[in-house]
Structure formats: C-alpha cells, structure tokens
Design a protein that fits this description.
The protein contains eight helices and eleven strands. By secondary structure, the protein is of the alpha/beta class.
Length: about 250
C-alpha cells in the first residue's frame, strides 16, 4: 500500500479572518485556489477537504471537491486530518496542506510524497526555504527551523536561530513552510501524544514530534510562498495574481 492523499483542513472561525476559506480572491474562494493547486500534483491519489462547517462543505461540493465532515471539537488542523486518515485506511501517506496557502507548489507536494516512499526511516517530512529578507527572521510570526547535516530538523522556533555569535560566519535562516507529509501510523501516533513542554512554550505543534524522538525530515527549497492570514494578505495576493495575469504568466 503506497497510495497518498492530500488533506486540506478548513475551518470557518478565525480570530483575525472569519470565513477565510470562502473569501473570494480573483473571483474564486481562497480554499478553491488551494484545492486547484493540489490537483496539479502528480503523486496524490486523492484530495480531501476536511471541515466541520456546512458552508465550506457545500461550496466545496459545488466545485467538485471530495469533502469529509469532521468533529467541531478539534484543536488543530492535524487533529482534523487525523480523523479523516483514521477512516481512510487505503492511504499509506497523508499530506497536510494548509487551507490558507493558495500558492502551494504542486511539485513540492510530489517531493514530500516521494521522500516518504523512498525512505522508510522518514515518518514526517516538511519543507523550509531561506528568507528572501533575512531581517524577517526576527519576527515571531515567522517560524524558523535549523537542520542537521542530513537534512533533519534539530529545532523549530519563533526566535531567530541560530544565534550569530561570530559575525564573520555567514548565517542562513530557514523559514519553515507549514506543509507536512506523514506516514499514516506516525500521524495517528502523533495526535495521541499530549502537548509537550517546548511545544507549549513556543506554541509550535511540530515540536511535539521532536520531543518524542521522531525524526522530521526537512526539504529545503529555493523559494516559498505566502499564506493568507488577514484580509490585507488576501488583497495583496489578488493584486499579485492580477499582475501575473497582466504579464501572461502565473507562478
């Protein structure tokens, strides 16, 4: 069994942006942009939108998406996709794709799946890229990761790591991209563990895996893509898409 599924968790309630999944960007709901990008991935056997909200479910059904209705009590998107994965037993690999990242790279999704298929020692795989502007590494809203020589995560932090004590040594800050590939058993085990001390301190769920001794492999790419956290982000993205259409290109 080596089938892979991409699951997009989507919820209506958001402190900064209620109703974000169905916010229209260039005439399409934000979530549909994500789904259409995922559909371009070649290694996914299925794409499922996981939600507890009928407004989102009805809209996704209307454009032809497969939808799984989930419990409204989940604390995170990972919990939500685990509920779906628990029932979808035919899939060995699960890719957790953020529902607010409409420029997600289909080829990176394929690389995540291929990493899991090619190396049985990898239980979780994610991605990161160098900051285009190193000054942004100081923002607590940007999650950083440091990796070992084999490409495995040593630590994730909201702090700018590593600390450049010797200013003569060049430092490359890596921005973590919130996309994950899981081996099915690893995902189901992950959600059984209680939140860990470092996870609670940093408010970063991925630290739970490291604190429990799970190897998290990191694919380092040249570039990343912006997410949509606020209405201002949505407006900026719409302007970017309009410019791309004007040039006759799309990313």
């Amino acid at each position: 069994m080596s089938k892979a599924v991409g699951i997009i968790p989507a919820r209506w309630r958001s402190t900064r942006f209620p109703g974000k999944p169905l916010h229209l960007i260039a005439g399409k709901p934000l979530l549909r942009h994500v789904w259409e990008r995922c559909a371009r991935a070649k290694k996914l056997d299925s794409i499922i939108i996981a939600t507890d909200d009928m407004r989102i479910a009805d809209a996704a059904f209307a454009w032809g998406a497969q939808v799984a209705l989930t419990s409204p009590s989940h604390q995170s998107g990972t919990d939500r996709i685990a509920e779906v994965a628990r029932k979808a037993r035919s899939f060995a690999f699960i890719v957790n794709i953020q529902g607010d990242e409409p420029l997600v790279d289909p080829s990176l999704i394929d690389r995540l799946v291929e990493a899991l298929r090619s190396d049985r020692k990898i239980d979780i795989v994610t991605a990161a890229h160098p900051f285009e502007n190193p000054a942004e590494a100081s923002s607590p809203h940007q999650v950083k990761v440091i990796v070992d020589l084999r490409g495995n995560a040593l630590y994730f932090s909201r702090f700018a790591i590593p600390f450049p004590r010797d200013r003569a040594v060049p430092v490359k800050y890596l921005r973590h991209q919130g996309i994950y590939g899981f081996r099915r058993r690893a995902l189901l085990q992950f959600v059984k563990w209680k939140p860990t001390p470092l996870e609670r301190a940093e408010s970063l769920e991925q630290l739970r895996a490291l604190e429990n001794g799970v190897r998290v492999h990191v694919l380092v790419t040249k570039h990343g893509w912006p997410g949509v956290d606020t209405p201002a982000d949505a407006k900026a993205l719409e302007q970017k898409l309009a410019r791309a259409r004007g040039r006759g290109t799309s990313r």
